[in-house]
Amino acid sequence: xxxxxxxxxxxxxxxxxxxxxxxxxxxxxxxxxxxxxxxxxxxxxxxxxxxxxxxxxxxxxxxxxxxxxxxxxxxxxxxxxxxxxxxxxxxxxxxxxxxxxxxxxxxxxxxxxxxxxxxxxxxxxxxxxxxxxxxxxxxxxxxxxxxxxxxxxxxxxxxxxxxxxxxxxxxxxxxxxxxxxxxxxxxxxxxxxxxxxxxxxxxxxxxxxxxxxxxxxxxxxxxxxxxxxxxxxxxxxxxxxxxxxxxxxxxxxxxxxxxxxxxxxxxxxxxxxxxxxxxxxxxxxxxxxxxxxxxxxxxxxxxxxxxxxxxxxxxxxxxxxxxxxxxxxxxx
Length: 332
What we know:
By secondary structure, the chain is mostly helical. Helices cover 47% and strands 4% of the residues. The protein folds into 2 domains: 27-200, no CATH class; 215-290, no CATH class. Strand 1 (134-136) and strand 2 form a beta hairpin. Helix 3 crosses helix 5 and helix 6 (102-113) packs across helix 8. It is elongated, with a radius of gyration of 37 Å.
């Protein structure tokens, strides 16, 4: 009966409190739901102005997100996963389909043949024009500007993304298990759509997002020690908040591990016996000696008084010895 009740409770609670089964956020869904944001983000990748393009180690040699407190771990480790934002997110995917699209091939050739100064001018002009982008039949249409071949390139990029081909391209060339989603996540994070999804599900840093799950589902409260530092006034707006969180979480972890060895700190339970309040029923039922309960055993009654040595010297409360066996004819 107990097993059946436990099984019913487990199934019912699992159905009620299970982890959410939200669909993943992909580049394809982003391009379909928020195409204007996608095109603007792709333009920033091509221009080298996105967060990923200016991030710094481990992706490139920039310093946009480099943090330093006494030293910079990013600079020590260096670039371990090089990502050229323009090449990775825009040019390389387009080059793979250019052999089947003569117009796109001509646009790519024109862009690559231009000088860095001309490319920068095109990118700047398109960045201003794309803020007024409209869509006709699903095709991005931007106002006329001196932006060279970029409008046609990014219109094709949008079509590529909507088909799901861009998702597949960014996780290709991996080993047997394609589980490294670094590139698509970086691309997504550079836009506003991904951040808006996180805000709606209470997953941003300001919302204790590290220890939350999407929606109203219970999260991971044991992560509070790390997330706490992002909520402390003065830390929350610091450019080095990640290092602050790492340092202080490490120090707090070492302190917790050292509690049994620090005189005074380890004696707090004796000075403030909260455990006695929690275990009050246990302490009420029995006495304690050195923190261990003494259990009193009942002793059998005896008609013999204390100090009486009858029945083979048995005292009060002791069991008398068994009587000697009878003998008959030399046999026992």
